[in-house]
Structures are given as C-alpha cells and as structure tokens.
Amino acid sequence: MRLAQMAAHLSNGKPSNGSSYEGSTLADLPKSWTFTSSLPADPKFPTPAASHKTPRQDIEPRQVKGALYTWVRPEEAQEPELLGISLAGMRDLGIKEGEEKTEDFKQLVAGNKLMGWDAEKEEGGYPWAQCYGGWQFGSWAGQLGDGRAISLFETTNPTTKTRYELQLKGAGITPYSRFADGKAVLRSSIREFVVSEALNALRIPTTRALSLTLLPRSKVRRETIEPGAIVARFAQSWLRIGTFDILRARGERDMIRQLTTYIAENVFDGWESLPERNPSEDGKDARPLKTGVGKDEIQGPAGLEENRVTRLYREIVRRNAKTVAAWQAYAFTNGVLNTDNTSIFGLSIDFGPFAFLDNFDPNYTPNHDDHMLRYSYRNQPTIIWWNLVRLGESLGELIGVGANIDKEEFVEKGIRQEDADDLVSRAEALITRAGEEYKAVFLEEYKRLMTARLGLKTHKESDFENLFSELLDTMEELELDFNQFFRKLSNLKIGDLETEEQRKSAAGVFFHHEGVTGINNNEESARKRIGNWLEKWSTRVYEDWGPNGEDEARQVEMKKVNPKFIPKSWILDELIKRVEKGGEREILDRIMHMALNPFEESWGWDEKEEERFCGDVPKFDRAMQCSCSS
Ligand code: AMP
Ligand code: MG
C-alpha cells in the first residue's frame, strides 16, 4: 500500500526524467556477468560450483592473491521486511513498476534468491565479492574488499543501454570481511538508501539504491545492539582506486594491464572513447625522453606521448574532478575519502559518516574520528587528487612506457633497469600534467554549477572574486545555511533590491530563526554585508537577464538547480529514530519522495511537515558528526 501510494505520487508528479517507461519483470531483466567472466577469480573457489558446494560459513576472511574477486553467495536472510524502494532506481534499472510487490523481488533484494544460477546443473551466473585494497587516512591499509557487499549480476537497461551492477550491502561475511561481521545496521542503511538517491536527483554522479530491507532477526553489535539491514544498490562500476592499489601492492602487473582493458572496454565505451590529448598542452612539455625499452626506442622531441593507459587515467581524473566540483557546489562531504572509497567511474561511493553542510564551514568534517580534518569539506578536491596520484603510481609503468606499451619484452619482463629513470620521469611528467587537467576540469565544472546556482547565464572572470568568494566568506562569517541560501535567493525579486534599505531588508530572509549568528556580528553589520553582496549579485543579474531582470523566468531556472529539500543529518537522524525506535514506516517513503524530487515547491503531503523538513536546522542539531561504525 505504501509503495503504491508513492508510485501514485510519482506518476502524478514528475518522475525525474519526466517520462514513463515500460520496464521488465525481474525474470526478464537482461542479466550478465561480464566482470567475473573477464577477470580472474579467487583460486580457492575457481568456479561458482566450487563456491556453491562449500558450506557458507566456511567462506571465511583471508588474504587472497592473484584474483579480483571471490564467488560467494549472500547469507540467508530470515523474515526480511522490504521497507522502501526507490522508484527512480526501478526506472533506471528498467524494472517494471509493481515488481516490488512480488515475492521474487523481496527475496532477491534480501539475498535469498539467486537469479541466473541453475542449482541443479550447478551452472550459470553467480554472486561475487570484489577484492581491493586502500590507502586509509594516508596510510597503506592492505587488503580490504567487499567485506559485506555481494554483487548479484549486471543488468542493462534496454532503453538507455546503461549497464549496472546490482549489489547487496549487508549480505554477510566474505573473504574480505577482515575482523568484522559482514553486516550493515539499519541506521547507516537508511542513510545510504536516501542520500545516494538524493545525490542522483541533484545530478551528482553517485552509486544508487534500489531498495532497503530490514532484517528484524539480525542483531548487529556496534556500540550497542542494533537491527541489521540490506541496501540493494547499483552502479555502472564498483571499481575503486583501491582495486589498482591492491594489484600494485601484490606486484601483479599483468592484472593491472588486464584491468585497464576491462575498464576501457567494459566500463567506459571503448579505448577510442577516451580523451585525446588536450591540444592546448601540445609541445608544452616537449623534451626528448627515452621510453625505457631499449636504446633504439628513444622518443622523439614530440615529447610526452600519451598512450591509451594515459588516456584512461585522464578519463578517470576528469570524472573525479567533475564529481568533486559538484560536491563542493552542493556542499556534500563524504567524510572518508580513502582510495578504497574513490570510484574509477567518478561516482560518489561508500556512504559512511557523510553529510551535507548545514552552515557553511569549510573546515567541517562529518567524520567524528577525523581529528586532522583530512576529509573536511575544504580538503576534498586536494584529497581526491592525492588519491588519483596513487592511481597514477599503480599505472605508472604503463603510463611512462609511452608508445612501447605493447612491446613484447616490456609486456613480459617489464622495464630494463637502465631505462627505469626515464620511465619514471615520463610517468611523473604525465601525471603532473593530468594534475593540471584535474584543476582545470574541476574549476570549469565548479564555475558552471555556481553560475547556474546564482541564476546567471554567463561566467565573468570577476565573478569568482566578487560573487563566489565574497558569498562564501559572508556565509562562513554569518554561519548561514549553504543550500538554503541559494533556494532563498531564487525567491528574491530583483526589483526589490534597488536601494540599500531594500537590500538590507531582504537580507533578513537568510538569517536563522534565532536571528543573526556568527561571532562579532550584529543585526546591522549582517544586513549590511549581505546587502552589499546582493547589490553585486543584482548588477550581474541585470547584465545577464536585461533591464527588468526577468524575475519569473530566472526564478524557474534557479529553482531547477537549487533544491528546496536536502536530506541533512538532522533529518536522517529523525527518520532513523522514527523508523527504528518508533516502528514508523510511511515517513521513509515521504522523505524518499522529497529526496527524489528535491527541486519541487511542495510534495502533496503535509504542508507543515514538508516546510519543517525544508526549514531551518534546529539550533542544536547543526553540524552533527558520526562515527565510522556502520
Ligand atoms: P568502509 O569504512 O565502509 O569504507 O570499509 C572499509 C573496509 O572495511 C571495506 O573493505 C569494508 O568492506 C570493510 N567493512 C566495513 N564494515 C564491515 C563489516 N561490518 N563487515 C565486514 N567488512 C566490513
Ligand atoms: Mg569503503
């Protein structure tokens, strides 16, 4: 009933792509296992049958070598309760509406049903857990991997042709569980379920969520005993920088090469789709360099020739630059940006102690344990680049070898000792150049998003200083709510900002309900400061929109990019309490519906409640932090 109601909301309102779709039944959904058929399996369970024959509890945590995954099925889930689905997730996977009411769906997303595996013949597609490693808080952490995530199959949406890998988080122990229990608690599962879908609705690249299942019989020990849950989630790829890290650490250079081919051909649209060398860079670093295979293979003065792996690296760099720009423009903080949580596809991935900023505070980190503020809002662009340099190191040999990448001697034996220095300096130069590109792509995307958020049609060089920086400084000093600022700005009429008095009066809408905040500010100084900024802003609006400022058209455009609803920490906290402790169910669908349609003005529910969830963050709930124990 709840799900049906939500479906009605969505079809009455607008699904995010505005179109209806046919969709397949679960049984008809096209399924594939490209990842597992292209890459090497854990030699301990060389086939799905070998894994299937093994008692589930005997598939224990251990160090795995020579493999990128292990065949492993989810643990049996007792009495699963489907708490919620994402209709946007259903649509994007191409699953027919109504399938969520079937027993098959409920059992699939709880891990109790294998699709594609013929148990009698012991053949077909089988679930798996990925192996990866990672740099955590700047130190090498060794083997990590899907310690509680198990992928079921890939499926390609017949309309969009996008292929996704469907995965269950919280489905039991795998060889990569280390000392932990393979479970996920309801609390963090609710958070991931809502926020990954919210990011997608904000057009921020992210892994997605299809459903949330409560495991009422599963008692999970964290700081206290908590109920367990499973999020069925999906992504174009679950590969991370950490996947390359582990291969590098194990010295498995053949597999690094194999993985680059898999990614180019199966995750991206083929080698030829990858970025060509940036023409503006041509010749800039030109210098003769040896390529590292033999003295006869000296590279000409064309300089730093880019081979296909360099282009692959650049694609990964560019994607991550864009995603981190979107995080900054919408004030989303991941909280644990280790290399195992940095996606090869440039997705927001791994939802632990993340948060959207409430008040704008660049030093904020949602991670209670991050005392050095390594993963604070301000540091995200730097840290993602730090992680990308680790990837550059894993790919360094393939990048540095340039045109000789497929020379037999290099493929088989690697680089000759006497050529190593040249190779390293070439790789370093190419990675440094990719770093310049990272900055440029980041800035371009950040500018694009902020320009749109401010309701401008063009970007002027001076906007950076006059509008962006000045706004951020003002927000920081006055402790204003970041995302609400833009939505409130979208409501202003330009004709109401003509005089200083008018601007100072309008400034009041940005204050918290308790009045002016921030040390050393009083009502007059705060109104003056915001008023000054509004003057600069309205000048730019007139420049872009003409002498009457086109309030109506501009407001429509601004509201398309400035969400009214953001699932902030206090909202997720209330949601968790009400679902977990209060046994409420409908609230989850309500919040999810808002998260999936964040730009709407209202959601046809309870106006007062909607406004409360879109309103000022309760004073003592601002800038909350979480621990990593999820
Ligand atoms: P995270 O902090 O979520 O990025 O996790 C880091 C590593 O620890 C990953 O390899 C996870 O799979 C693993 N991990 C975290 N929590 C658990 C758990 N409860 N059971 C098994 N593995 C876990
Ligand atoms: Mg992780």
TrEMBL record:
Annotated keywords: ATP-binding, Magnesium, Metal-binding, Nucleotide-binding, Nucleotidyltransferase, Transferase
Start and end residues of each stretch annotated as Disordered: 1-25, 38-58, 274-300
Composition bias, Basic and acidic residues: 274-298
Family, as annotated: Belongs to the SELO family.
Entry GO CC: mitochondrion
HAMAP family cross-referenced by the UniProt entry: SelO
Superkingdom per UniProt: Eukaryota
Protein name, entry field: Selenoprotein O
Organism of derivation: Mollisia scopiformis (Conifer needle endophyte fungus)
Coiled coil start-end: none
Xref: Pfam families: SelO
InterPro entries, sorted: SelO
